[in-house]
Design brief:
There is one protein chain. By secondary structure, this protein is of the alpha+beta class. 23% of the residues lie in helices and 20% in strands. It has helices spanning 3-15, 17-23, 72-80, 84-95, 217-222, 233-242, 279-294, 333-338, 343-350; strands at residues 30-32, 35-37, 51-54, 60-62, 67-69, 108-110, 116-118, 136-137, 160-165, 171-178, 187-195, 201-204, 227-230, 248-249, 271-274, 300-303, 310-313, 320-324, 356-358. The strands form five sheets. A five-stranded antiparallel beta sheet has the order 1-2-3-4-5, with helices on both faces. Strands 8, 9, 10, 11 and 12 form a five-stranded antiparallel beta sheet that branches. A hairpin with a 5-residue loop joins strand 3 and strand 4. The termini are far apart.
């Protein structure tokens, strides 16, 4: 079966999220914003928190075992211990999707109105020019857009796929994460939709133009707490579990792309910056502070990471912070969740007066855009 078939089944499964998770035996979980937190039946999991499934994208992760996937087909393959194709076939049977003949291009799936509709990416027709300058990136993604490709031509299927959306939850573009062979660095690739002059819509693994929407805008619109900014989608998934009362956001492109995102939705909003525990994280925090000042966000505070250097113990009302456990280079929220941190432990951290450090009012240089600051612009001290 083709990757188009798997992508189509994944999209149909997402539309029937509750039915699918019930069928997989993942009932009784907690809902925490867009995240569904069941127990993981594949290991000795006794309390919700480490295993999470996103209702908006189908992306899932187990922070205790580092198993993860980008859609509900991958989740079914994981839970049922079968291949992606077998999992797609089982889901297709559950959802009433007519499977294509072997060697066919894809299924026809029943849509929300019960009618069958094409669920695969059509072959692109000939075009006089495929010069990228002739195409326009389409954001948000229209309802009649073809399904996004399920795999990258070089890296294969992503281990995680995140949908960057409007505040209303309409996808604008996707960002994929790939776990490669041992010894190779993880890879990331944005996935965007482009319209050619003849009206043809085509997915491309390329970055969206600036300014790019942030990840987490629906939660920013619905939650009143201070907005928390972390670096990377994996860290955001974890921070959502640790800070359920706060909207958690991140941006696409990492430490070098802060200035390419649209920070205007944070105007007038209190913001907490949670940097990665490394030099790149410090630089990203400095650029974030400058970008937030440009849009009049505030007050802006930074996590003092030394306050997180504890071992989490217990759970619920018995949660405690015990002997110091220094952070390793590069640690972020995902690393804390993997070590057993839960929202109760984070609440104890936030109760400490030295956890959040308010940034001083900016100088004229600090108000410049991050890419325009001179090398002698004021720098934040180490977090």
């Amino acid at each position: 079966m083709s990757d188009h078939y798997i992508a189509s089944v994944a999209a149909a499964a997402l539309a029937k999220f509750d039915q699918v998770v019930d069928w997989l035996g993942l009932t009784g979980g907690k809902n925490q914003g867009p995240e569904y937190l069941p127990l993981n039946p594949k290991r000795a999991d006794h309390k919700p928190g480490s295993f999470t499934i996103n209702r908006h994208s189908g992306a899932w992760a187990d922070f205790a075992s580092d198993d993860r996937g980008g859609d509900l087909v991958a989740l079914a393959a994981y839970i049922l211990s079968c291949t992606q194709t077998d999992a797609a076939d089982k889901l297709a049977e559950l959802l009433g999707i007519v499977k294509p003949e072997r060697g066919g291009t894809g299924p026809r799936a029943k849509g929300a109105n019960g009618k069958a509709g094409a669920a695969v990416i059509p072959q692109t027709k000939p075009h006089a020019s495929n010069n990228p300058g002739d195409a326009v990136c389409v954001m948000p993604i229209p309802a009649d857009a073809p399904a996004p490709p399920a795999a990258h031509r070089t890296h294969g299927r992503p281990s995680g796929r995140w949908a960057y959306t409007t505040a209303a939850g309409v996808p604008c573009f996707y960002h994929d994460r790939y776990e490669l062979k041992d010894g190779e660095r993880k890879q990331f690739s944005p996935l965007t939709l482009w319209r050619w002059p003849d009206g043809r819509l085509q997915w491309q693994f390329k970055a969206p133009p600036a300014p790019r929407p942030l990840l987490g805008l629906p939660e920013l619109a619905s939650k009143q707490g201070a907005a928390v900014i972390v670096e990377g989608e994996k860290a955001r998934d974890a921070a959502v579990l640790l800070l359920p009362q706060n909207p958690v956001l991140t941006w696409q492109g990492g430490a070098q792309a802060v200035s390419r995102s649209d920070w205007r939705p944070l105007a007038g909003r209190e913001v907490w910056i949670w940097p990665d525990h490394d030099t790149a994280g410090e630089k990203a925090a400095r650029d974030l502070a400058a970008a937030l000042r440009q849009v009049d966000a505030g007050p802006v505070k930074v996590f003092a990471l030394a306050s997180c250097a504890f071992r989490a113990a217990g759970a619920g009302e018995t949660a405690t912070l015990e002997a110091p456990e220094p952070l390793a280079p590069g640690d972020d929220a995902a690393d804390l969740v993997a070590r057993g941190w839960r929202a109760e432990h984070m609440a104890l951290i936030l109760a400490k007066p030295d956890t959040l450090r308010a940034l001083p009012e900016p100088t004229s240089k600090a108000r410049q855009a991050p890419d325009e600051r001179s090398d002698d612009a004021p720098k934040l001290r180490r977090f």
